[in-house]
Specification:
With 227 residues, this protein is α/β, with parallel strands linked by helices. It has eight helices and eleven strands. The protein has a single domain, classed as Metallo-beta-lactamase, Chain A, CATH 3.60.15.10. The strands form two sheets. Strands 1-2-3-4-5-6-7 form a seven-stranded mixed beta sheet. A four-stranded mixed beta sheet has the order 8-9-10-11, covered by helices on one side.
Length: 227
């Protein structure tokens, strides 16, 4: 696993197929103050990856943060039996086969700030890990372009057609299907009020600086040109 913030935030990528093309998705391991680990948006976990995670710390929870990022949750549950899986509201209807628990309000509230963003099709918890000043999301922003590995020719074509190549953009499902713009703006303004330097996302290049500017640019369709 690759450290984004030494000792606190780690990521691991995995290839996925979507709309006939291929790209990478990303799992984030968040280290709590007591040394325990929260796995955010799990990917398939084999013995080698499990050992790498356990070297970081004991896994306290799995987090299924999105109604669209759930394909590999069962793999993570098998890798870490008995560890609770907390999920965004609505995923339990989509995946009744999974043992899921709603994310309680006070859970690690002194360490992890959170805000929900999305619509009836795509909705996610966006987290702030206060200690590392890092925001952790999935499709809140996508950032795919010339420097992005793991993107095949067909996916490259789709991203260019969607006007997202080399530009930070919210996922198409968020741009097209978010009808309650007032609620979206409220959620985004709360996220932008957080103190953070880095933005970890599921698809494309991370933002290790200028993260707030990237978020404002990606959501300009809601925040307006003055954002």
């Amino acid at each position: 696993m690759r450290a984004i913030v030494d000792g606190r935030v780690f990521v691991q990528e995995h290839p996925v197929r979507f709309a006939g093309g291929s790209l990478l998705t990303r799992m984030t391991a968040i280290v709590l103050d007591d040394g325990g680990v929260v796995l955010h948006s799990p990917i398939p976990i084999d013995d080698e990856l499990r050992a790498a995670i356990e070297r970081i710390g004991p896994v306290r929870a799995l987090l299924a943060p999105s109604t669209c990022h759930h394909v590999f949750v069962a793999d993570a549950q098998r890798a870490f039996p008995g560890v609770p899986t907390y999920a965004i509201a609505g995923l339990e209807r989509k995946r009744p086969d999974l043992a899921l628990t709603p994310l309680p309000d006070p859970l690690w509230a002194d360490e992890l700030e959170r805000e929900a963003v999305g619509n009836r099709v795509m909705r996610e918890w966006v987290l702030l890990h206060r200690a590392s000043r890092t925001v952790i999301a999935v499709d809140l922003v996508e950032h795919i372009g010339d420097a992005t590995p793991g993107v095949d020719r067909l996916m490259r074509m789709w991203i260019k057609v969607l006007g997202m190549w080399n530009k930070p953009r919210a996922a198409p499902e968020l741009r097209w299907l978010t009808r309650d713009r007032a609620e979206a703006r409220r959620a985004l303004e709360r996220i932008l009020s957080w103190e953070f330097d880095k933005l970890v996302i599921a698809h494309g290049e991370l933002f290790e600086r200028d993260a707030k500017a990237a978020l404002r640019e990606a959501w300009r369709f809601v925040l307006g040109p003055s954002a």
